[in-house]
Design brief:
Length: about 150
């Protein structure tokens, strides 16, 4: 029995970074019936050239956007009929937070994620997945039980 293939419109935030771009490429090529919408602010960590090999694909679209921009996120979700969000967007280099300041980190990692969560709720999206490093869970002391 062949089940019908469901088309999904997936918004991937931070899709021009190293890990995000590999995920975007995988989704675009493995799931040609999905529409993949990649948004990235293109900071020091994002590189649009990571997407050169798929930019011509009919199921791929790119927007340069900041995940903190609620109005733009809402517009993209409505215009592209987004069903789900996968978030790779993050400020990750801890040394930068010490030398540059923590504001960018708080804006992206807290306010930006909250903006995406609120948008997912407002637009009744069926899924919001946040990708992060293990560092968000903090450190365990030697011998401390792992959950």
């Amino acid at each position: 029995m062949n089940l019908p293939i469901r088309q999904l419109n997936v918004l991937i935030a931070g899709g021009a970074g190293f890990i995000g771009s590999n995920f975007v490429r995988h989704m675009v090529t493995k799931y040609p019936h999905y529409n993949i919408v990649n948004i990235d602010k293109l900071t020091y960590a994002g590189n649009i050239d990571n997407m050169l090999d798929i930019e011509h694909m009919p199921n791929y679209k790119f927007y340069q956007a900041d995940i903190c921009d609620q109005e733009l996120i809402d517009q993209i979700i409505v215009h592209e009929k987004i069903d789900a969000i996968v978030n790779f967007a993050a400020e990750t280099h801890v040394d930068r937070s010490i030398h540059v300041g923590s504001r960018e980190f708080v804006m992206t990692n807290v306010v930006g994620v909250q903006t995406l969560l609120d948008a997912a709720r407002r637009h009744n999206l069926f899924k919001m997945v946040n990708i992060s490093t293990d560092e968000v869970y903090g450190s365990l002391k030697l011998g401390e039980p792992r959950l």
